[in-house]
Design goal:
This protein is an all-alpha fold and 46 residues long. The chain has helices spanning 3-15, 18-44. The chain has one domain (3-44). InterPro entries: CmpA.
């Protein structure tokens, strides 16, 4: 997990900002899924 995202999450948890936590959580799952989709498509095309 990138350091900037860790810092933002820690700040959101300390402030108990649920909206920010949800947004950052969605960002993390998008960030993780994006490289996997790129690898799948590049692996099928020679």
């Amino acid at each position: 997990m990138p350091q900037w995202l860790c810092n933002q999450l820690m700040s959101a948890f300390q402030k108990k900002d649920r909206r920010q936590i949800r947004l950052l959580n969605d960002c993390w799952y998008y960030y993780r899924a994006k490289p996997d989709k790129m690898n799948e498509t590049s692996g099928t095309n020679p």
